[in-house]
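The authors assume throughout that readers already know how a fold can be written as discrete tokens. For illustration, here is how one protein appears when written out as sequence plus structure tokens.
>
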Amino acid sequence: MKAAVDRLTQKDFESEQEVRWCPGCGDYAILRSVTRALADVGARPERTVFVSGIGCSSRFPYYVETYGFHTIHGRAPAIATGLKLAQPDLDVWVVTGDGDGLSIGGNHLLHALRRNVGLKILLFNNEVYGLTKGQYSPTSRLGTRTPSTPGGSFDAPVVPGLFALGAGARFIARGIDVDKTGLGRVLEAAHAFDGAAFVEIFQNCIVYNDEVFSSFTSKERAADTQLHVEHGKPLVFGEGGSKGLAFDSKTFSLKIVDARERANDVLVHDETNPTLAQLLLSMRTPEFPVALGVVYRNPADAFEKVFYAKHPTQMKRTAKVADALRQTSTWRVK
């Protein structure tokens, strides 16, 4: 490890392990954005931990030069919660996928969010199970054809951002795997947030669900299909900000207006407003653009701070694991 006075670079956070994802996988771009963000925010490898579950994304701890735990399917939020309580001064990141985090791990993710545990949760969403050969996942769209649904999926998909909002998350953001600028800003904001920061990353699976997000990620369509939100700024998109979002009081929903002719009707982003966040997270192409950036941020005391405020003596742990293991308990069953 480098001395604390040294200025670390992106390369300092890249491990010597061979990165093994499919050629062209979006995970490569995410890895670069994460290591770059760690350097930019001044993170320290010895104070940073990545915890993952099972899936392609969950190989992440091997590829980052920090501490890491490759845990079991869906349980990364639970293990990361224990780690954050044991060492609240650590930067703890959770790396999961739409299958790992929203299927078998949905319950653990829900409680980490509602408790506002100080974790930075990165959910790679490619709308498919990539590691186990392309089965449909909780986020797969209706009609998705996979080896497990050759006739097309008929399950109603989960919207990760809406799930997080319903679970009580206080930080919800979105980014695109190959958008190094936008994703970088989101990662830095997540790192700075004191509590559970939930980041959905649209990630392309080149083998089993290639270009599933191309309707809004392609450069040709980006201007009209991406809405980059920023607190206190008008919700505009299109060439030169020609289109804007307004509130339709008749249907209690959003509508698209000409931002130049009806500038006064265009909504201004308020990242503390959960109702606006719900509307933005519900938008779908091709009718609406996809909201990217920090959609919702409404700070409150992190779980670990509340815990130690009520249990101040537990901050000073003097007991030894060996002593606990040597203790015996006798149970008598009558």
Remarks:
- The longest strand covers residues 290-297.
- The chain has twelve helices and eleven strands.
- The radius of gyration is 21 Å.
- Residues 27-40 form the longest helix (14 residues).
